[in-house]
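Issue: ligand-bound run for calcium ion - logging full I/O for the record.

Environment: standard queue, default settings, no custom constraints.

Inputs:
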Amino acid sequence: MTHDDDLFRSIFRDSPIGMALVDDAGTFIALNDAFARILGRESADVVGAHYSTYTHPDDLQRDREMMTAVASGSMPYYQAQKRLLHHNGDTVWTRVTVSDVAHDAASGRHTCIIQIEDVTEVRRTKELLEHRAQYDHLTGLPNRSRLVELLTAALSRTGNTAPVAVLFIDIDHFKLINDSFGHEAGDDAIIEVARRIRDSVRPTDVVARLGGDEFVVVLDAILTENAAQGLLAVITDAVQEPLVVGGHEVRVTISTGIALADVGLGAEGLVRRADLAMFAAKQAGRAGSEVFREDLHAKALSRLSVEAELRLAIAEGQLRVHYQPVVDLGTREVVAYEALVRWQHPTRGLLMPQDFIDVCEAANLVIELGRLVLLDACGLIASYPEFKGKVFVNVSTRQIGSANLTRVVASALDATGVSPDRLGLEITETGMLAATPAEHSDLARLTAMGIDLLIDDFGTGYSSLSSVLQNPVAGLKLAREFTLRLGDRSTGDRISTAMASLTTSLDMYGIIEGIETEAQYSIARKHGWSYGQGFLFGHSLPIEELLADAKPDHELADSALTLPGSSALT
Ligand code: C2E
Ligand code: CA
Ligand code: CA
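Outputs:
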């Protein structure tokens, strides 16, 4: 036995790399522990067996050709990725090198050495990374980059001549769910919505998540806009079924944009069109859909340009405040005005809050905007002594707490010499929750000053009544969506009646919003509402116009806004 033989034996035995010797028929002559471990077997059991016993069937054909080439001496070695069969039935990915090590001249027989490394982990990691790069981790749906690939493929299959439609879906007010129940519950809601969308479409359609609460559906082989609308209706119905989030039953609505493939339009362009249409659906009041039209391009301003313009608008005084009367439903006299902000845009005319409030919130400009509106509202009270009622100002959640709303309000009152009991602040349910100690103390200090806090859009949030009422609330405004359901002899009527009596028993004043018809007016009165607001009583206008054309049914009350059964509040 030579020193070389010894060395080879010890390398063979101790190598961390799996090594085996096979004869030119493919039978194992010897193998080391590392090789046996990869197979999950004892070396002794493997010796004498044919290599094909442990080879994945799909790799056999190629292996056989290669082994024959090496064993016949026509190829010195070969290297490949190869799947082996583990004793427990698993497939093990390996990198295999087969080389011809000994050639017995007398018999003409070759002996081959096989070296293998287990690369299963490496492969798994690689697959995982590839998957992560293409799929959304939360829902497992394709992400944006995978969507673009799939949509590009779909478009080229149909030669771009038609039948692909793209739906861009966005959950309405999703932030409310996150704010009310926390992000984990929000994630659960996203997962459930994703599942419902997936279950509503055909197997050949693609559902992707772009992040946040945005989904894109690629409908393959859609011939008409109507067909796309039909499939969208199925999705919408499924998504809008009640959903359990954080132990509460909630209903979400979605806004959707639809775009059909167009000659020469790529995947990115098509998704952008659907996105624009979705944005238009949001602007049109949410919970609906819009089909892309060319003029949407011109209409839609990018968020960034709106933000820049808004900063300028605030600095240059382009914001206006209009006032809408709140009336006593018994007498139709005006008891208060709600301040509603408008933007007198230099080229686009008068813009409504829905066109810019969201951008304002996102860019934190709403704090400055809120300050201006408060000043205007206090200015109104100071300049019109003949008006004895209150002015209600909408307050964004961002203004409460760290932004110190109390200080902002106090300085507006100071600057105008107005008494705090003339001011009401309209705050949404989420704002009333006062999640942080800073928010809580801000609201408490405002109440202590004698300012009314009102819950705005009551019924549209998901908060429990008790948590909303943890702060002293002076009044409550029932959201317009319930007014729209008045007279349905069902939930609409039940909610309205219950809320009206609740406000009475909690000593709050109740205001029903969005009264447009005499019919709604009389039902609201029957349900026990004391105050109301809506186009039937008056639109929002600059205060000079409102006070100038005070009609008989638009009289100002002497004593404004009384608690049910108690004396005047002013
Ligand atoms: P909101 O507080 O619910 O205000 C009521 C909205 O309903 C107003 O729309 C008002 O014009 C409209 N409205 C009133 N009566 C009727 C009616 O009978 N029928 C219909 N269809 N609509 C009616 P606007 O002025 O567009 O305001 C939209 C929202 O913008 C407000 O909803 C409020 O959340 C927000 N907003 C307005 N001004 C301010 C502000 O100064 N600061 C903040 N943070 N938000 C504001
Ligand atoms: Ca309001
Ligand atoms: Ca409201």
